[in-house]
């Protein structure tokens, strides 16, 4: 089905290209989002701590991820007027509601790592 501007969108239909829920799924399905939420699951953290705990994330990607999460209302950014200025990131109430499903995904990936790795190796060996 093609959606046109005349076709009304059903609320919460991520299978429609222009549905806002698709953007939310894109955000929470992003690997950096999953890892940031995972770190903040343990408490508030400064940018440098997040970067240190999330191996492989660039400063640019972490900044973009945090800004997106803040914009979406999942992370709060608190600036303390100290010298030097201290900025701390933490989960909002909405962000905390993501902890359980993301923990479940993390646990699933740990439990199925061997099966997935074996499948990948078998696939890669096919002609």
From TrEMBL:
<keyword id="KW-0804">Transcription</keyword>
<feature type="domain" description="HTH hxlR-type">
    <location>
        <begin position="19"/>
        <end position="117"/>
    </location>
</feature>
<dbReference type="GO" id="GO:0003677">
    <property type="term" value="F:DNA binding"/>
</dbReference>
<keyword id="KW-0805">Transcription regulation</keyword>
<dbReference type="Pfam" id="PF01638">
    <property type="entry name" value="HxlR"/>
</dbReference>
<dbReference type="InterPro" id="IPR036388">
    <property type="entry name" value="WH-like_DNA-bd_sf"/>
</dbReference>
<dbReference type="InterPro" id="IPR036390">
    <property type="entry name" value="WH_DNA-bd_sf"/>
</dbReference>
<dbReference type="InterPro" id="IPR002577">
    <property type="entry name" value="HTH_HxlR"/>
</dbReference>
<protein>
    <submittedName>
        <fullName>DNA-binding HxlR family transcriptional regulator</fullName>
    </submittedName>
</protein>
<keyword id="KW-0238">DNA-binding</keyword>
